[in-house]
Design brief:
Two copies of one chain form a homodimer.
Chain A (H helix, E strand, L loop, with lengths): L3 E6 L10 H9 L2 E5 H4 L9 E5 L4 H13 L3 E6 L8 H11 L8 E5 L4 H9 E2 L5 E5 L7 H13 L3 E5 L9 H10 L7 E6 L7 E6 L12 E5 L5 E5 L2 E5 L10
Parallel strand pairs in A: 1-4, 1-5, 2-3, 2-4, 6-13, 7-8
Antiparallel strand pairs in A: 8-11, 9-10, 9-11, 12-13
Helix pairs in contact in A: 3-4
């Protein structure tokens, strides 16, 4: 008997941002597979087996989940945020395409979640209020030249730019180079947001400018948002908000 | 006494994709403000007043909500999907910046939601599995030249491209021009997804290619996703999936 596999987004961290569909899917699973800190966020269910793995073994984790589903289990693979953005969904489809032919018969569903990006934006106002680009700075699976090409395109197009995976111990210099590139296209006062562990207990959110941004402030739990030429700060009752207006003008660099 | 204003994302449509935080915020509100079809998705609460408005009056709706909050009400303004993406959050901050100085003292929060984009991607696989751009094709509030500039940058950068507001009765030709521009940078077989009313009763999702895409298939409830050079189709048990692998190569146009 062939089982099923759901790739489930847990949301950014706060339990009240996990959707009812995600919670229900997790409750119905016989087996839950994921990176250990994400598994810890899965509510205790009805005796599911939990399969924890390291963060860097996405493809191996996807194959393990498909193997369990092929054995007839109801499997949930969990990602933080949304599973389709730089997360497990892509790894599962890659494993299906390159793996055991029988895996194509498994009933696959993807349960979307509130991404870290949307949660970070909400905490600070509405920085993503207009056209934006999302770029992972990790060059583990793509050449750095491609990252530079995309940063250049995003900067030239005056997009708001969201940087996923800005830094880690193994990749300390990429964010500095990326911010330097963007700064050549933007005014020094352009707002930059460092949003770390959004909606989690150790959340920290820093608003700075492209001229002053310190890349050393980011780590693997940080998301960086760089404003477009239109993104602005306003003072609110509890500190500044950052937002990008709905209207925009053509700005020549 | 000054009240509070929450800008709440209802999610894409299905009630089980509305977060518990959104549901709780709506329950606690004395007044709910929004476009009538979105208001109809707000669960019946404890006798809140509902203020319905037309879709094209975002700024007027934002001001009405701020006015109610300034009178001491607990106001929720609702958006479909996520309120920070081409939705009400930006309009509220614009109204605060340009309006009554007292509005700056109102306690403002933004409650993120599962965006239509993330829900559409989840229904079809993992098309947003790598770097992507999000562009609104509406030229109501920005010059069409800026849209073209951003489309050109996104196409040249080999991004996956998500098109919000692809068409309406008043804007019938923009999507054809946009797809034509992107097609000059992409192979004809590049997957294109038309996702309409995702997770709603009348959902329809069509997978086609950039060579065959018919812009007349889109309306104001449609989201269009155009793959990058790496985006691919695989056959699953219940039809094709579209996904973009985690790894990528530099492709010269």
């Amino acid at each position: 008997m062939t089982g099923c596999l759901a790739i489930v987004g847990l949301g950014p961290g706060a339990p009240e941002l996990m959707t009812p569909l995600a919670a229900e899917t997790l409750r119905a699973a016989t087996d839950v597979v994921g990176y250990a800190p994400y598994l810890a966020r899965v509510p205790e269910g009805m005796g599911q087996r939990r399969h924890a793995s390291d963060n860097r073994e996405e493809l191996a984790r996807a194959r393990q989940a498909l193997e369990l589903a092929a054995q007839g289990k109801s499997v949930a693979v969990v990602s933080s945020g949304d599973p389709g953005m730089f997360a497990m969904a892509s790894a599962v489809f890659e494993a299906i395409e390159t793996g055991n032919a029988a895996w194509k018969d498994i009933d696959i569903t993807v349960v979307p979640g509130v991404s870290a990006m949307l949660a970070a934006a909400a905490r600070i106002g509405a920085p993503l209020g207009h056209d934006f680009c999302v770029i992972s700075l990790s060059d583990n699976l793509k050449p750095w030249e491609l990252v530079l090409k995309r940063l250049e395109a995003a900067a030239a197009g005056d997009f708001i730019i969201v940087l996923y995976n800005p830094a880690s111990k193994a990749r300390p210099w990429q964010l500095g180079e990326a911010l330097g590139l963007i700064a050549r296209h933007r005014a020094g006062a352009t707002p930059v947001i460092f949003a770390r562990a959004v909606t989690q207990a150790d959340e920290s959110i820093e608003i700075t400018t492209i001229a002053e941004a310190d890349p050393a402030r980011a780590d693997m739990r940080t998301l960086v948002i760089v404003g477009s030429s239109a993104t602005r700060l306003i003072q609110g009752s509890r500190g500044p908000f950052v937002y990008t207006p709905r209207h925009a003008e053509l700005v020549e660099p």
